[in-house]
Design goal:
alpha+beta; Nucleotidyltransferase, domain 5; Alpha-Beta Plaits; seven-stranded antiparallel beta sheet; five-stranded mixed beta sheet; 18 helices; 20% strand
């Protein structure tokens, strides 16, 4: 049983938000003056810096991982045979800002996107880039020594650290660190952050909560801790100051966000309410600076895992705001804000430059929105040795790191075909080869020691079990070339699949007598239908195979009741003045209510940016399984851009949005209106229940 404290006014009776806590920033004309001053200051341009190469994170740790044992917390999602995840929350005695890393996440997205605007302001931004990519801070300079040099056309990984430097205090604080990875080969962006109370090995200081690494040793120790924990090499460090948040969000006119439930608090100075004031109603809406900040940093009355998911949701939707916004119209203003609040630091041996960031911006613009994946560490438990803290097994950490390095962009479509409806546009091509039985030999054509052996080992890891090194090629190759014997069934398709692992600059060719003679000059005859000759552009890493990993199909844990909440839905429809759809199947155990304010109506009829909307809140397990149904008189809301896939079901075109193999949202449109079912922030409602509910929707009768 919960006690409702600090009870908000019903529905939208209070249009004015409560007074902001002193530590919250206020937007306004002062910001405009600062922006104008910064823009003037940035007018000078410096010469372009040398081009930086891009480096792939070290994935060797993944290859040595032992098979993952059964994890204590039961995996992802409640229902469907999976036990509910336990929530743990611990708040330190002293108050801290929990949100600054969000600034880094959005700042990194904004600056890279800004520099990707088709060359606009290129000479102007060089001065800004020079400011942002160099630091006079000795600890930041020391941390740069621990960064890996980036390699062209390979994935990059950045560590975003939100810094909270307060007047009169030395050092600073950071509660959460987020890793961001951009992969040009698979065109994916992945996000990973760890709970601030997760106990890890802090180099030189033993087992401690991860947030203490920054408290003790600032950027160098924080970087070393993350590298020790994940085994991933970091290419960029992005330390940020919290002041950028309101100003960046304000410059973009706010962010459209799916708010899962009511968030309300008035900081009246009492112990129970002594945190940032907040007054946000549930439902899809446009949040501006102060409200966006309050939502992103909210950390009370739920768990740290939910807070991380809330922040990742903010970053994901902010990227959509950047993509859809006329960035060029206010580019100077955005860059002026960023230059004074954000650093993008590369290795001391190869600092970032405007041209490189421009290339990253163009890359980000080309990445489909559905290929931005939020990776979460959910297999955790309460620490028995450190009260109030969290623990995760090495296998659980390795699992989430593997997901971060290899984001899943294929399972969603396969799950939709299996569990929703087959895709009539997709022709299922019968496999012409078996990678486990296809012969593959690898030859060294670049002169680098052990290049063929290394590549063949990675091919084995990718499923080509018969791959083996066959010595050197006497002829040097610039690009990796995959030869195939056209007389062997499936050899061409197999060569094409192998070529995808080596990247877009690889070449696929049918082997002929001349090529065979050239390859055999070292005295080793060609004996396999596939011959891979490693070229000079080979960087030592292969992309993972594009194979959908389907989770087992499970029985949906649902309750069928066509009459449930009919009166409520009819009342909401009368107030809204446009047609609504209601589910006739609901996730088992879910109640139509807000978990914190159950005495208030579970539905909300409102307007946002002049658009009529309705949102209904459901709660199955306190805050971890809060989901909702949204309707809005808008045929193109930003949140529905770029679905993972679509399927036709009984006259409706369902838009499906997956985060890896987890179904986050199912939407459809009708007569200029949009409707969708939104999973919980942590994706805890199982796919089976989400799909069953989505299929059950029917129009509300009068």
């Amino acid at each position: 049983m919960h006690v409702e404290t600090n009870t908000p006014p019903p529905d939208d009776a209070a249009n004015e938000p409560p007074a902001a806590e002193p530590e919250a920033l206020a937007g306004g004309s002062a910001d405009d003056a600062v922006i104008a001053a910064s823009a003037a200051k940035s007018a000078a341009a410096l010469p372009a810096q040398p081009k930086m190469k891009v480096h792939r994170p070290d994935g060797t740790s993944a290859t040595a991982a032992a098979p993952t044992p059964a994890l204590a917390s039961g995996g992802a999602g409640g229902g469907g045979g999976r036990p509910p995840m336990k929530l743990y929350s611990s708040e330190p005695a002293r108050r801290r800002r929990r949100w600054p890393w969000v600034v880094g996440g959005i700042g990194a997205l904004v600056v890279i996107a800004a520099l990707g605007v088709a060359g606009y302001g290129y000479w102007y931004v060089q001065d800004t880039v020079s400011t942002m990519t160099r630091s006079s801070n000795k600890q930041q300079q020391e941390a740069q020594d621990g960064l890996a040099i980036a390699t062209a056309n390979e994935p990059i990984t950045a560590l975003v650290i939100g810094e909270d430097h307060r007047a009169g205090e030395s050092g600073g604080r950071s509660d959460t660190m987020m890793m961001v990875r951009i992969d040009p080969r698979t065109k994916t962006i992945s996000l990973l952050s760890f709970p601030r109370d997760l106990v890890v090995d802090v180099p030189g200081y033993g087992r401690r909560p991860i947030n203490e690494a920054y408290d003790i040793g600032q950027e160098p120790l924080a970087l070393a801790t993350v590298k020790e924990l994940t085994g991933v090499q970091i290419n960029y460090l992005i330390p940020v100051d919290f002041r950028a948040f309101n100003r960046i969000v304000g410059t973009f006119g706010g962010v459209w966000l799916p708010i899962d439930r009511r968030y309300f608090n008035v900081n009246d100075g009492t112990e129970a309410n002594n945190y940032m004031s907040i007054n946000i109603q549930p439902g899809y809406q446009l949040l501006r600076g102060n409200d966006s900040l309050a939502f992103a940093r909210f950390r009370h009355k739920d768990s740290d895992l939910i807070r991380l998911s809330r922040q990742q949701t903010f970053v994901r939707e902010f990227k959509k705001r950047v993509d859809n916004w006329g960035l060029a119209s206010r580019l100077i203003e955005v860059i002026s804000i960023l230059r004074d609040n954000i650093k993008i630091l590369g290795s001391n041996k190869k600092p970032a430059d405007a041209k490189t960031l421009l290339e990253y911006g163009q890359l980000m613009a080309s990445i489909p929105r559905g290929n931005m994946q939020q990776v979460r560490l959910s297999d955790i438990s309460s620490s028995t040795k450190y009260p109030g803290k969290l623990e995760a097994t090495p296998q659980a950490v390795q699992k989430v790191v593997d997901e971060f390095l290899n984001p899943d962009t294929t399972s969603g479509n396969a799950i939709a075909s299996r569990d929703v409806a087959k895709d009539p546009k997709s022709k299922v091509k019968k496999a012409t080869y078996n990678p486990a039985t296809m012969g593959v030999e690898v030859r060294n054509g670049n002169g680098a020691p052990a290049a063929a052996a290394d590549a063949s080992w990675q091919l084995i890891e990718n499923g080509w079990k018969l791959a083996h090194s066959a010595g050197d090629s006497m002829t040097q190759y610039l690009h990796t070339t995959i030869y195939y014997d056209g007389s062997v069934e499936g050899a061409k398709d197999a060569a094409t699949a192998i070529g995808e692992s080596f990247g877009t600059d690889s070449e696929i060719k049918a082997i002929d007598a001349a090529a065979k003679a050239e390859i055999q000059q070292n005295g080793v005859d060609v004996t396999e239908p596939i011959v891979v000759v490693i070229g000079k552009t080979y960087t030592g890493d292969l992309a993972p195979p594009k194979v959908a990993v389907l989770p087992p199909k499970e029985e949906a844990q649902i309750a069928r009741d066509p009459t449930r909440d009919v009166a409520m839905w009819r009342q909401a429809q009368r107030k809204a003045g446009f047609p609504l759809w209601m589910p006739t199947v609901v996730y088992a155990g879910a109640q139509t209510r807000d978990p914190q304010y159950s005495s208030q109506p579970p539905y909300r009829v409102y307007k946002t940016a002049g658009k009529k909307a309705v949102y209904v809140t459901y709660s199955a397990d306190a805050y971890d399984q809060v989901f909702g149904v949204q309707a809005i008189q808008w045929d193109q809301p930003p949140i529905l851009d770029g679905p993972t896939t679509t399927r036709n079901y009984k006259g409706r075109t369902l838009l499906l949005y997956f985060n890896g193999a987890s179904l986050q949202r199912v939407a459809w449109k009708e007569n200029g209106n949009s409707y969708w079912l939104e999973n919980s922030l942590t994706g805890r409602i199982p796919n089976s229940a989400m799909i069953a509910m989505a299929k059950s929707f029917k129009l509300v009768t009068r």
